[in-house]
TrEMBL record, chain A:
It comes from Trichocladium antarcticum. Transmembrane segments: none annotated. GO terms for cellular component: fungal-type vacuole membrane; proton-transporting V-type ATPase, V1 domain. GO terms for molecular function: proton-transporting ATPase activity, rotational mechanism. Subunit of the V1 complex of vacuolar(H+)-ATPase (V-ATPase), a multisubunit enzyme composed of a peripheral complex (V1) that hydrolyzes ATP and a membrane integral complex (V0) that translocates protons. V-ATPase is responsible for acidifying and maintaining the pH of intracellular compartments. It is found in: Vacuole membrane. Pfam families: ATP-synt_F. This is V-type proton ATPase subunit F. Keywords: Hydrogen ion transport, Ion transport, Membrane, Transport, Vacuole. V-ATPase is a heteromultimeric enzyme composed of a peripheral catalytic V1 complex (components A to H) attached to an integral membrane V0 proton pore complex (components: a, c, c', c'', d, e, f and VOA1).
TrEMBL record, chain B:
InterPro entries: V_ATPase_D. Keywords: Hydrogen ion transport, Ion transport, Membrane, Transport, Vacuole. Residues 214-243 have a biased composition (Basic and acidic residues). Residues 214-263 are annotated as: Disordered. This is V-type proton ATPase subunit D. Transmembrane segments: none annotated.
């Protein structure tokens, strides 16, 4: 499987979320900006003014373009805004992980992976 | 009869019959093995175990993230303003990275992420320098723990996704062999057998015809002979040998000057 060969150079986490989640995760030290020529950040702050196209573009960039990202953390309420993209995303790398945010408690019903699990067991 | 069902495009010969039989046997062995692999992958010790752990980890993540955002609120309160912008600007190089290693489950390589922290680069040395430094420190630790939990969850999730994919592929193969390849090979064998039988019958019929013809010819020759004899008897030539002189058979070794054969 080709997916199993390219995960060795994946070493960063990426985050798409509201300001508080991003701030906290950056504090933990996951933030990374690539060297000057392109200056790509591995995080995106989403607020009410961010439109869905921007979120989608960031998601695409993290999931398909960049080859150094192993895990994409995305706030669940942000994931809801691009739900169709998350649900159709089936690749193993990078892993998409929906995380709760401060204002939006975590709802296991919406999680794409948990839904897949349930489908696997035919519930 | 021979055209019924799907079959492979082969000539009905004994050789291809042998090939088909070998293929059928191979397909059956493969089917058995794949079925066992599929059962091994879906057995109660791997997939349900992983899903249970994912479920657990997701719930744990909910709690951890809650604690973490609480500590961030503390920081905001202590620093007396939003530090988000400052942090986003000062993030340069990741201190927290992941490494992937492999784990083998029933012949499937599952990657597992492992979080590690690189030493010596701290992008946020200045954060909270004025006030709230302690809270910032605590918040960092809390979030670091949260991220560790998240990484663990992510590796479980990746394992599940890959396993799910592999199970699907294996099941698809099992079904393909069971419902397409085996019936088709069986059909082909049946077809070859029927064609070979047909050939056998044809051959038998032909031989019978040849035998019949020969019999008829001898019968005709006999009848001719009898008729001749009867005629001769009627002519009154009693017991005279029919025009054959009783001298010794010609000695073939004594060359009598054969006629030259000219092509």
């Amino acid at each position: 499987m080709s997916a199993q060969t390219d995960f060795r150079d994946r070493q960063f986490l990426a985050v798409i979320g509201d300001e508080d989640s991003v701030t906290g995760l950056l504090l933990a030290g996951i933030g990374h900006v690539t060297p000057p020529p392109d200056n790509q950040k591995n995080f995106l702050v989403v607020d009410n003014k961010t439109d869905n196209a921007a979120i989608e573009a960031a998601f695409d960039k993290f999931s398909t373009e960049r080859k150094d990202i192993a895990i994409i953390l995305i706030n669940q309420h942000v994931a809801d805004r691009i739900r169709h993209r998350i649900d159709t995303y089936t690749a193993a790398f990078p892993t998409v992980l929906e995380i709760p945010s401060k204002d939006h408690p975590y709802d296991p019903e919406k999680d794409s992976v948990l839904r897949r699990i349930r489908r696997l067991f035919g519930e | 009869m021979s055209g019924a069902g799907d079959r492979e495009p082969v000539f009905p010969t004994r050789q291809s019959l042998g090939l088909m039989k070998a293929k059928l046997k191979g397909a059956e062995t493969g089917h058995n093995l794949l079925k066992r692999k599929s059962e091994a992958l879906t057995n109660p010790n791997t997939v349900p175990e992983i899903t249970r752990r994912i479920d657990e980890a997701k719930r744990k993540m909910g709690r951890v993230m809650q604690i973490a955002s609480l500590s961030l609120a503390e920081v905001t309160y202590a620093v007396g303003g939003n530090i988000g912008y400052q942090i986003q600007e000062s993030a340069k190089s990741a201190r927290f990275r992941v490494r992937a290693k492999q784990e083998n489950v029933s012949g499937v390589l599952l990657p597992a992420f492992e979080a590690y922290q690189t030493e010596g680069n701290n992008d946020f040395a200045m954060t909270g320098l004025g006030k709230g430094g302690q809270q910032v420190q605590r918040c960092r630790e809390t979030y670091a723990r949260a991220v560790e939990a998240l990484v663990e969850l992510a590796s479980l999730q990746t394992a599940f996704v890959i396993l799910d994919e592999v199970i699907k592929v294996v099941n698809r193969r099992v079904n393909a062999i069971e419902h397409v390849i085996i019936p088709r090979t069986e059909n082909t064998i049946k077809y070859i057998n029927s064609e070979l039988d047909e050939l056998d019958r044809e051959e038998f019929y032909r031989l019978k015809k040849v035998a019949n013809k020969k019999q008829r010819d001898t019968a005709a020759a006999d009848a001719e002979m009898k008729k001749k004899n009867a005629e001769r008897e009627a002519n009154g030539e009693k017991h005279k040998a029919p025009e054959v002189d009783d001298s010794t058979p010609a000695d073939i070794l004594q060359a009598e000057g054969d006629e030259d054969i000219i092509f």
